[in-house]
Design brief:
Layout lengths: L7 H4 L22 E3 L3 H4 L4 E6 L9 H14 L4 E5 L3 H13 L2 E7 L5 H9 L3 E5 L3 H11 L5 E3 L5 H7 L1 H10 L5 E5 L4 H15 L8 E7 L4 H4 L21 H11 L2 E5 L1 H15 L5 H15 L7 E6 L7 H7 L11 H7 L3
Parallel strand pairs: 2-10, 3-4, 3-6, 4-5, 7-8, 7-10, 8-9
Antiparallel strand pairs: 1-2
Amino acid sequence: MTGPGRGVLARWRHVLPVTAATPALTLGEGDTPLVRSAALERLCGLDELWFKLEMCNPTGSFKDRGMVVAVAKAVEAGAQAVMCASTGNTSASAAAYGARCGLDSYVLVPGGKVAAGKLAQAIAFGTRIVEVDGNFDEALAAARELSEDGAVALVNSVNPDRVQGQKTASYEICESLGDAPDILAIPVGNAGNITAYWRGFVECAERGLATLHPRMCGFQAAGAAPLVVGAPIEHPETVATAIRVGNPASWDGATAARHESGGLIEAVTDEEILEAYELLARKEGLFAEPASAAGVAGLLKLSRAGRARGGRAVAILTGNGLKDPDTAAARYSPNIVKAGPTAREIARALGW
Ligand SMILES: *Cc1c(COP(=O)(O)O)cnc(C)c1O
């Protein structure tokens, strides 16, 4: 098979650590749509705003893009099992690719803080779930210790193969737009993704696929904004559970991306995140999970503060809104009326 749709390992093998011994693993990840904004572009004071729909990956988040590489390399290295700590999406992804390869998988999740859809996925894929009485940062420290002897492969974004896979999104953006954008807006949690995108854009410029580097604009939730504060947060809190991280493993990668690109990493409040979450749904027809809305919330905030400079931006919609039905239920009062089955009854119920 050639062209798009082959999966990340086959399509981008020339820029990935793929060898003859790497299994040809894919669930159809990558090649996600890049869709032009209908309404938010103007509100954000931009000439162009595009959404990269990473929520269209097979398990509904960008994590698949790196997981396919990490799990394939784990198989190549002879691992029998994979393990991760997760705010939810990494566990769904590790469980899916683990199942595909016949590997056991173990996921450590912060108890009570994982969105229902993500847990449902991990359960469906048959992974062994450990609900940790602690936060993500503590779970990651434990996962690192448990995987030290190499019998189980750690597939968090501290695994360099994850970052390699995730950088391919930058290649796709440059390919679609014919160049890198002026601005890349992205939510930041454990900071592997902003690190990966920056690496991808630097490589694209080196390979002549782009003439410019984007300003990397990362956004953290105000209650979980260690990179903004400049110190780890012991008890991170936010409605955007996917970025509820107090001590990002890729701290240095994120700050290097900010510095080298002339970008920024700032905080957005939960209310700003939920406003962007609603605008994405109501004005764009895009149902992204709350963490995904943080990048868009950040662009809106910059614009309202008079800091928008026009240009072309890409916002990464990292995960699917279906994963977190509870946040949707809490945010919206459903617009539902009951009616009998006839046209007359339905028209009456609608007040026609
Ligand atoms: C994992 C995740 C993030 C954060 O990515 P990091 O690489 O941890 O910074 C953002 N949004 C969603 C939906 C995620 O699953």
